[in-house]
């Protein structure tokens, strides 16, 4: 693997800022897409990594980039606006799940056919966006996740903490078995959704915390959508957002609870609002 994907990025005091038109208005040789693709970035204190994340977007891969700022204390909003992104600001922090709810409501209201969710912390390689979107457009999958864990050696070399690797592997194996899936991982911050997924899943009922992602995927299984994944190089470094061990433990327990709710609902023993159709 090229060393440029594995090495920790070095941040300059002043980042190069470019305008988003470079991505939204591609050159003439870029094939024109037939679907509207909106990328959403749920952001919190992403000032130092936002420009680098957007710089990796291939030209013409999306039609619009939305950043939803969840009450950041730094200059995330100013940087996003200078770059020409669409920006929505939460005056108060609503939580990671609450941020995504705003992202997806915007996409549905503004005609997105495909939605790309990527964390703006430069942890995920945005160059794979066209390939992930292509899997959706070809009708192969309804949901695509970026798989960070192609091998144990690579994940740890890229900086994934060993305890996070172990918990990721354990939870993913548990979820694959009990949900009948075969994903490389269930806990990625890079995801691509077909519009129908967002129209069907009652994500407004989900948690405003990190377990939102787990609930969303379990709901996708419940409603019969096809899940797949694509390898994505990942970077761990100080500026990338990470939840600590305590919050990770809470997230893990909430993940187990969500899968249990799925089975209780499936067996008719206890009905959960997570799996009721939108009303």
What does this entry look like structurally?
- The structure is a single chain.
- The protein has 279 residues and is of the alpha/beta class.
- It has one domain (16-275): Alpha-Beta Complex (Spore Coat Polysaccharide Biosynthesis Protein SpsA, Chain A).
- Helix content is 39%, strand content 14%.
- Helix 3 links the parallel strand 1 (37-43) and strand 2 (64-70).
- Helix 10 runs parallel beside helix 11.
- 35% of the residues are buried.
In total, the number of domains comes to 1
| Percent helix | 25-40%
Order of helical and strand elements: HHEHEHEHEHEHHEHHEH
The side-by-side strand order for the widest beta sheet comes to: 3-2-1-4-6-5-7
Rg to the nearest angstrom? 18 Å
Which CATH C-level class is it?
A: Alpha Beta
Helix/strand structural class: alpha/beta
Summarize the structure.
The chain is α/β, with parallel strands linked by helices.
Question: What are the main properties of this structure?
Answer:
alpha/beta; disordered N terminus; 14% strand; 279 residues; seven-stranded mixed sheet; Spore Coat Polysaccharide Biosynthesis Protein SpsA, Chain A
What order do the helices and strands come in, and which of them pair?
Elements: H1 3-6, H2 21-24, E1 37-43, H3 50-55, E2 64-70, H4 76-83, E3 86-90, H5 96-109, E4 114-118, H6 129-137, E5 143-147, H7 152-157, H8 162-179, E6 190-194, H9 195-200, H10 212-222, E7 227-231, H11 245-266
Parallel strand pairs: 1-2, 1-4, 2-3, 5-7
Antiparallel strand pairs: 4-6, 5-6
